[in-house]
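Researcher: Going back to the complex we discussed earlier. I've cleaned up the inputs and rechecked each line, so this should be the final set. Can you rerun the prediction on the complete assembly and write out the structure?
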Amino acid sequence: MAEASDTKDRILDTAEHLFAERGLGQTSLRQITSHAEVNLAAVNYHFGSKEGLIKAVLARRLEPLNRERIRRLDRLERQGHVTLEGLIEAFIGPPLELSRDGGGGSRFVRLMGRTYTEHASFLHEHMRHANEALVNRFKPAFRAVLPELPKTELYWRLHFLVGVMSYVMAGNDMMQLLAASRNSEQEEPREIIRRVVPFLAAGLRAPLPEELAQARDVLEASPRDPA
Amino acid sequence: MAEASDTKDRILDTAEHLFAERGLGQTSLRQITSHAEVNLAAVNYHFGSKEGLIKAVLARRLEPLNRERIRRLDRLERQGHVTLEGLIEAFIGPPLELSRDGGGGSRFVRLMGRTYTEHASFLHEHMRHANEALVNRFKPAFRAVLPELPKTELYWRLHFLVGVMSYVMAGNDMMQLLAASRNSEQEEPREIIRRVVPFLAAGLRAPLPEELAQARDVLEASPRDPA
DNA sequence: CGGAATGGTAAACGTACGTTTATTTATAAC
DNA sequence: GTTATAAATAAACGTACGTTTACCATTCCG
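Model: Rerun complete. Updated structure for the full complex:
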């Protein structure tokens, strides 16, 4: 048998599938190897441990994905055409578009979205490290298109952005319930992008909390300034 | 022994603690009963099963929490003073403020945030049912303050809002890393509310995707219309 | 006093898990 | 053709899990 690494890829594909479907902790190596029709011990042989398998599943897709995100940002800057909307789309577009391919891509995106709220310290550490270059590249770019925003405020809002992105990527059941008006399955990711980019751009551009409290009649009725 | 239901409460408190800390699937009944210093079988005696315990942990806090959210919305409407910002704060304020109490409250909020992305179909069903009245109460209110927004678009944006809320509630590690500038721990939840409400309000008020694509030079440079 | 309930407990049940070991099979080198 | 190397396998290891059973203690009501 043993032709190159057919087994290795079958394990990765099946693991990606089941991890996204049922979660990391709830998916056993026995389920993976049984579905992949390989031997149970093959996982430990090729990946050392279940943790190693998880990291391999993530790395296989994450690296080209982040390369594409940075490539898009590079292109924006090369064109001297960096807008907030373009920046957001360069960041959240590639993962959402990857979910368009009916195969492993969509599974991986859901897995990636859930990663943000999984309970596994090694996972958080791994993702943080895997995304370090990405974050270091995008953070200054956001700072540049939102120069009036204080550093702290910008970082909070970028976290809110990540919250939306991971929630959308996780593709919650509630979300799918809502998608009663889905016409074409192929265009769905682009439709989400079309809807979410203006939402996030407006949120990032929102007036500062302090300014807002003074300038408008938001929150509760302010006793002073009856205009 | 047997004084009322001391055991029952100790199980609930400890379970809430550990569920939030390590996740539902990763927390065993043996860990819970051992920390709570009660017998292992007590969980199945009082709650029937682990699933029953999880539901009890959630229900204990969720019901008063949602009652408070609806109470705030009632008050806004009674005062005839329903703003978008007020609506958002009535919805996301109570859970975030609950996280202020250093005790079980903060643990529960994190647990609740993670619930949205946990892998357990019974959980999603339970949460959906537990939040049904809440959603039915708030949805029309949001519709009323955003009358120009198409129904579908509003629902998408409310999902984005839930994404931000659950992400903030889950209190991701990344988020805590960022909180290097935390001065007072007590005011932190209110500070998050202060920051997130303008973000969400601006996102909900954002111009429609179609309008935006026509009116501005967003996304990529459109070949036509060289203005 | 006596007998249900109710609360609590110890011990075991069967199952599933990740991992390891020892062994066999295939590939390639000399 | 023999030997080294890598890949694949079958079987077992030890551990941990949720749940169940059978048994003890307390309370309360007739």
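Model: Worth noting: Residues 93 and 124 of chain B are 22 Å apart (CA to CA).
Researcher: Good, that matches what I expected from the previous run.
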